[in-house]
Design a protein that fits this description.
This protein has 900 residues and is α/β, with parallel strands linked by helices. It contains 33 helices and 23 strands.
């Protein structure tokens, strides 16, 4: 096949090409792709990139500027305003008498539409840019051979067709690849096929038409899958959109993503308000229609009432809260991959975490390298070095420590010099979580081959039949096993992690070497490592507990080391549950155990995930923090998966939140920020919903008893909009520490209760204002006449204008000032103060709407100037309202425990 033909087939994502590649030898594959095992040269890399593009998915086409603007303005709020604008255009301009034509109302409504839409557009744009910057901070890499210089980590998006890639435990497969060589390679294709069981992959040629599905081909691995264990060398055959996963992503991007619990919570709030609208609007419509006789005016007023029950700025406030939270968290070393995860992070009441690097310093130091009698032995270090140096999987902190210690010791011990020149690697049996060991076959200059294995002591003893003592091989009897285990327990009790090293001469040859060779081995000694606890571990766990979060330790390490570390940081260790205990429990017994036990040790990945699943089934919101392959299942099972930027690729890919530093103190800051986001969103929803509900209740009562509308439709809309604009400062409001001390979940029913308590409270003072205006202020300004005594139409209009203006101003004052009563469970202005933006916008809104009636704009929309005596009564009403609101708030808290 010529290059052009290959390109044509390749970019069509034709399974036929992949199947063809699977049925030819590795050498032919390399020739076909114009590459070699030493990798592509820079020229060939550029040529391949020019032909096949970059290893990225074609992102869903960004919305055009027009569409973004449309989305910002396309809301029920805007639709209602447009209807009102059209009606105003016809009634006030088109059908009005030439001398009565008035554009003011129409212009005001258009201005309101512009303000509302532009604010949302700006905040949505800022949120989008903030999210893109945060995601760009996270980068996954792959080990690629190029220019004959060996493997080098490069960003995944720089990989091209023909690149030679090395895969090891914990890696994501960075593209669709053909496997050239592999050793015990097991890959999870769950992201592609949904199958949870890992599949073994080999370089063996596949017979044509042997499988129905391309994903069943054992010598192909696909982008989006991840390496569970083993290692491999592969050649890239497809990238980006041309991969199997790329095609799936492209199709999924067009579909609807399942809603998160956060989104469901916000939507439930909207439906509550819609139900109130469905009830209130028809009642207001018919009462005003039948009592006033003007059905057009009644319809417009009813539409305004519906608008008054809707927090129009909710999408913008939510977006702003989330975007602000994400940026704040990034400054505190916490990266949010999905904005909605911010609130989910604040909800967690249980944090499950591994031990290494979280409770400990993650700086493993090799303290001892000893023979079976506990004596320092350089031969043990030599074997350990060869195993750690030549293994191709993910090098653990222990491997790094062994290599570093060998370099240091080689300065005074010549037997440790130039080991990589004396021994060459022959074969390898990669680490397996079930075996808990790793083997490397090496050959010396005399062509003698040895299999060197290191791993967990118990598992190593199970495969050893002999032991080496002072150069002699002796049987490993039960007494010696017991002695070794006793010494291991002593080290574990001191907080040290111990692994054993064994050897075997003349293992099976290359290509035949298997796990079966890990038998009848000779135990040569063991290594003891120390990973001391962090100084911040205890304060961090105490602080998390203060914030209502229980920390549970889920570790694969043994119980003795875990107990020692936990004792040092004052974690209760009387009850530790082991993986073997968990396997013997059914879910009902485990549900009881997970509530009582804080430490779980010797866990497999599946056991970790099961514990998380059971905790969630108990009604807990669970966060799981991990950075290894063995943590991925549990992270996916949790409400919030948390990883660190130094974690393996698949862990970072599975996480919702990524920490730039593996420290519980850093995580605590992220959790607090998540709770602040929730607090400010629920503040806006509750205060706006209750305030608007109170206003509408007042309207309903007034409509039933007043001979005119208590407020014109344009007044309601203007009042609602200015109030909502003043509420756009809520994302920047301060949050009481007491509120942050407990996890919070969305509870739509609490909003109903809050509305039913606080709404009628405001209505009391609205009614007082009605009585004041109807029986005192308006008659006083209309020659001492009541409304029913007035016969002059012009004077009636003045009476109505005075009444509507009085309630218009009182509504804004009460709505704005009661924010300070509702935003905190404490005494406002004294024990808890709002932020400067909240004060500023609130005062600005009050000032603006108080001044409007004294301007030509006010006159054009039916408002009028009020006498100074009105403001004396207004101050008294507002003070009484704030006092009563505070008392009702205290009663509400006493009844329902919490305010927000």
């Amino acid at each position: 096949m010529k290059k052009d033909e290959f390109f044509s087939v390749h970019m069509k994502k034709d399974d036929g090409f992949c199947k063809e590649i699977a049925t030819i030898s590795s050498g032919d594959v390399l020739k076909r792709l114009n590459t070699s095992l030493s990798g592509l040269t820079e020229d060939l890399v550029e040529e391949s990139r020019n032909n096949y593009g970059k290893n990225v998915f074609t992102k869903q086409k960004k919305d055009s500027l027009f569409k973004k603007v449309w989305v910002s303005f396309a809301s029920p709020f805007t639709a209602i305003l447009i209807v009102l604008a059209i009606v105003s255009l016809f009634t006030d301009v088109i059908f009005a008498e030439p001398n009565d034509k008035n554009f003011v109302t129409f212009i005001i409504i258009l201005t309101i539409i512009m303000i509302s839409g532009v604010l949302r557009f700006v905040q949505e744009a800022r949120s989008g840019r903030a999210t893109e910057k945060l995601i760009a901070m996270i980068e996954n890499t792959a080990a690629v051979f190029r220019n004959g210089n060996g493997a080098k980590e490069i960003p995944i998006d720089e990989i091209v067709v023909g690149d030679i890639v090395n895969l090891s435990t914990g890696d994501m497969v960075p593209a669709d690849v053909r496997i050239l060589s592999a050793k015990d390679l097991f890959i999870s294709q769950a992201a592609i096929t949904g199958e949870s069981e890992p599949i073994e992959k080999t370089p063996n040629i596949i017979s044509e038409n042997k499988f129905d599905s391309i994903t069943e081909y054992s010598n192909l691995a696909f982008m989006g899958s991840n390496v569970i264990s083993g290692s491999a060398t592969c050649v890239v055959i497809a990238i980006g959109d041309s991969t199997i996963f790329g095609g799936t992503v492209k199709s999924l991007s067009k579909g609807k993503v399942d809603q998160t619990s956060f989104e469901k919570g916000v939507n439930s709030v909207s439906w509550i308000l819609i139900r109130f609208m469905v009830i209130m609007v028809p009642i207001v419509l018919f009462i005003n229609g039948f009592t006033k006789g003007n059905w057009l005016e009644a319809v417009l007023f009813s539409i305004s009432v519906a608008l008054g029950l809707t927090p129009e700025m909710l999408p913008m406030v939510v977006t702003t809260c989330l975007a602000k939270g994400a940026v704040s968290m990034s400054k505190k070393k916490t990266i949010i991959k999905n904005l909605n995860s911010i609130q989910d992070l604040g909800c967690i009441d249980i944090l499950c975490t591994d031990k290494t690097g979280t409770l400990t310093q993650n700086k493993v130091v090799l303290e001892y390298h000893m023979d079976i009698d506990g004596n320092e032995d350089s031969k043990v270090l030599q074997y350990a070095f060869l195993n750690s140096y030549y293994q191709t999987g993910l090098k653990s902190l222990m491997d790094v420590s062994i290599i570093q210690r060998t370099k240091e010791e080689s300065k005074k011990d010549k037997t440790l010099l130039d080991l990589t020149k004396t021994y060459t690697k022959v074969d390898e049996l990669p680490f397996g979580f079930d075996r808990r060991r790793l083997s490397v076959a090496v050959k010396d200059k005399d062509n003698e081959t040895q299999l060197i294995t290191k791993g967990a002591v118990e598992e190593m003893l199970s495969i050893c039949r002999y032991a080496e003592r002072k150069g002699e091989v002796i049987p490993l009897n039960d007494d010696l096993r017991a002695k070794i285990l006793k010494e291991m327990d002593d080290f574990n009790d001191d907080g040290m992690r111990v692994i054993a090293v064994a050897r075997k001469s003349d293992p099976s040859p290359v290509g035949v070497l298997s796990i079966k060779d890990e038998s009848d081995m000779i135990l040569v000694g063991y290594l003891a490592f120390l990973d001391p606890p962090k100084e911040t571990a205890k304060p961090a766990i105490d602080t998390l507990h203060e914030y209502g979060i229980k920390t549970k330790i889920l570790t694969g390490d043994n119980d003795r080391v875990t107990r020692c570390i936990c004792n040092r940081i004052d974690i209760e260790t009387d009850n530790i549950l082991l993986g073997s205990d968990i396997d013997s429990m059914d879910d009902e017994k485990l549900k009881v155990a997970v509530e009582e036990v804080q430490i779980f040790a010797k866990l497999s990945p599946a056991q970790k995930a099961r514990i998380v699943t059971v905790l969630r089934a108990r009604g807990h919101s669970v966060g799981y923090m991990g950075d290894g392959v063995n943590d991925v299942q549990a992270m996916k099972a949790a409400d919030v998966g948390i990883s660190v930027d130094t974690g393996v690729d698949i862990a970072k890919e599975s996480a919702d939140v990524i920490l730039l530093e593996k420290d519980l103190m850093v995580l605590k800051e992220g959790i607090i920020e998540g709770r602040k986001v929730y607090a400010n969103m629920i503040k806006y929803i509750k205060m706006t919903a209750s305030s608007n509900f109170g206003n509408m209740l007042s309207v309903l009562l007034a409509s039933a008893f007043l001979p005119f509308l208590p407020m014109a439709a344009i007044h309601l809309i203007l009042l609602n909009l200015i109030y909502d604009i003043s509420c756009t400062s809520i994302p920047w409001d301060n949050v009481d520490k007491g509120f942050l001390l407990h996890p919070r979940k969305w509870d739509a029913s609490s909003i109903i209760k809050f509305m039913l308590w606080m709404g009628p409270t405001s209505s009391i003072f609205d009614i007082i204002t009605y009585l004041l205006m109807y029986f005192m202020i308006c008659p006083m300004m209309c020659g001492g006449l009541s409304y029913n005594q007035i016969t002059d139409p012009a004077l009636q209009v003045s009476f109505v204008a005075l009444f509507q203006t009085g309630w218009f101003i009182e509504s804004m004052w009460s709505q704005s000032l009661v924010i300070h009563m509702i935003r905190t469970a404490k005494i406002p202005f004294v024990q808890s103060r709002a932020s400067f933006p909240v004060y500023t916008l609130g005062i600005s809104g009050i000032t603006f709407l108080t001044i409007i009636p004294f301007t030509f704009v006010g006159k054009s929309i039916g408002l009028t100037a009020l006498p100074s005596i009105y403001f004396v009564y207004l101050f008294a009403i507002i003070i009484c309202y704030m006092v009563l609101a505070t008392l009702v708030k205290k009663l509400y808290i006493k009844r329902y425990i919490e305010l927000l």
